[in-house]
Design goal:
Strand content: 15-25%
Low-confidence stretches: none
Structural class: alpha+beta
Radius of gyration: 19 Å
Order of helices and strands: HHHHEEEHHEEHHEEEEHH
Largest sheet: 5 strands, antiparallel
CATH superfamily of the largest domain: Phosphorylase Kinase, domain 1
Bound molecules: adenosine-5'-triphosphate, manganese (II) ion
CATH topology of the largest domain: Phosphorylase Kinase, domain 1
Shape: globular
Number of strands: 9
Length: 254
């Protein structure tokens, strides 16, 4: 079938025949028909020339390294269309005033979730927060700038053993300024800001904007508290002279 061959070509399998590669196994396991069609569409549009490696496999999405038609490196986040996270996704979307109609069908709900992450990335950039530049989304596939050199940039969690107190202090200031800028200027909250969602490249980059939302969301204050608590606790454990949670919270809310 045409689409099958197109996907094989994108994965470099036509030439290599490496059908036992990790990439092939994961693609085979998680690319359902919709995903294959979506990838084939993006391929025809030159948005994804090839996928050549798996960066991360998660409960709700897999992230791949690839290149676009112009040879630029990209990261491709592909949400699973069948996820055990359906309930959580539904609840988060239902609370977001930007989201209108909520599809009953899981697959379509995941499309809404993907689009929202894309919009969140655009919005964060507008408020000068460093994130992977969003390039295009379609259905459950989000194409963005690849953060890294040869290899994807490490997460803060991956390199914390190599960092000094001064590094943590700088990173704390960076992270706190992201929280403040998002909330005060962008009317926005990330909602899952932690050492797992900060990549260290030339400068720190904040990723994973799927649960981010706007201040008007009735859950936003809870999410803000969660981010503040996680960040203050983490950097406090690393020896940084962190802010008092209540003071910071009141300063932001008041
Ligand atoms: P998890 O559940 O593991 O947190 P997730 O579904 O929340 O995964 P992300 O956090 O967005 O998805 O991405 C998973 C991992 O993929 C990240 O921890 C990071 O290592 C890598 N990654 C994501 N986006 C990029 C990017 N643009 N460039 C390089 N690596 C990336
Ligand atoms: Mn993540």
């Amino acid at each position: 079938e045409v689409i099958e061959r197109e996907i094989e070509a994108m994965l470099g399998l036509r030439d290599r025949r490496e059908k036992d590669s990790e990439l092939y196994k994961i693609a085979n396991e998680v690319f359902d028909r919709t995903t294959r069609e979506t990838l084939a569409y993006l391929h025809r549009r030159g948005k994804i020339e090839a996928l050549y490696g798996v960066i991360s496999t998660g409960k709700e999405a897999n992230v791949f390294a690839g290149v676009d038609g112009d040879g630029n490196r990209i990261a491709v986040k592909i949400y699973r269309t069948y996820t055990t996270e359906f309930r959580r996704i539904w609840e988060y979307l239902a609370a977001d005033p930007r989201v209108g109609y909520l599809p009953k069908d899981m697959r379509k709900l995941v499309f809404v979730w993907t689009r929202r992450e894309f919009k969140n990335l655009q919005r964060a950039i507008k408020y000068a927060v460093r994130v992977p530049e969003p390039i295009i989304f379609r259905n459950n596939v989000l194409v963005m700038e690849f953060v890294g050199d040869e290899l994807p940039a490490p997460r803060l969690k991956d390199v914390e053993r190599e960092l000094t107190r001064e590094d943590f202090e700088e990173l704390y200031d960076f992270t706190m300024s992201v929280i403040e800028r998002l909330w005060k200027r962008g009317d926005m909250v990330h909602g899952d800001l932690s050492e797992y969602n900060i990549l260290l490249h030339d400068a720190p980059v904040v990723i994973d904007w799927s649960q981010a939302t706007v201040k008007r969301n009735r859950m936003s204050v809870e999410l803000l508290k969660r981010d503040l608590r996680n960040v203050i606790n983490y950097f406090g454990r690393k020896g940084v002279d962190v802010d008092d949670f209540d003071d910071k919270f009141r300063e932001l809310i008041g």
